[in-house]
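User: Just a sanity check before I run the rest of the batch. Below are the structure tokens for the first item. I only need the designed sequence back.
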């Protein structure tokens, strides 16, 4: 008999690793800060972190190459090197539940961020 019970999905905390890369690339997402990559890109349930272990150089760029890109929370605390969050196609956007981007820590370039209750 086939199990038809609904499956619940647990939210994850995902950490960006490896500097410049594409949002959709599993190599760029880790379950630990500075850990090994290989996780699926974030869903609307997942929290994403960009921190001191995310970027090796100046102006490393996270390219939004998937539409829409989702996450629950986006946190840039501790990110160094003036990272850039940039979409690579006109219709790409990021849909997030909430975000914490310390002033001056990241450059958001040509990107639509949709955050309920916030003007971004």
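Assistant: Here's the designed sequence for the first item:
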């Amino acid at each position: 008999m086939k199990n038809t019970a609904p499956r619940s999905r647990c939210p994850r905390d995902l950490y960006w690793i490896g500097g410049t890369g594409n949002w959709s690339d599993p190599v760029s997402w880790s379950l630990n800060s500075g850990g090994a990559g290989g996780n699926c890109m974030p869903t609307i349930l997942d929290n994403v972190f960009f921190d001191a272990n995310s970027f090796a150089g100046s102006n490393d760029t996270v390219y939004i190459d998937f539409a829409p890109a989702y996450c629950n929370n986006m946190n840039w605390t501790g990110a160094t090197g003036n990272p850039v969050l940039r979409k690579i196609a006109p219709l790409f956007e990021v849909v997030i539940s909430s975000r914490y981007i310390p002033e001056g820590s990241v450059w958001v370039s040509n990107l639509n961020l949709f955050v309920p209750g916030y003007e971004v």
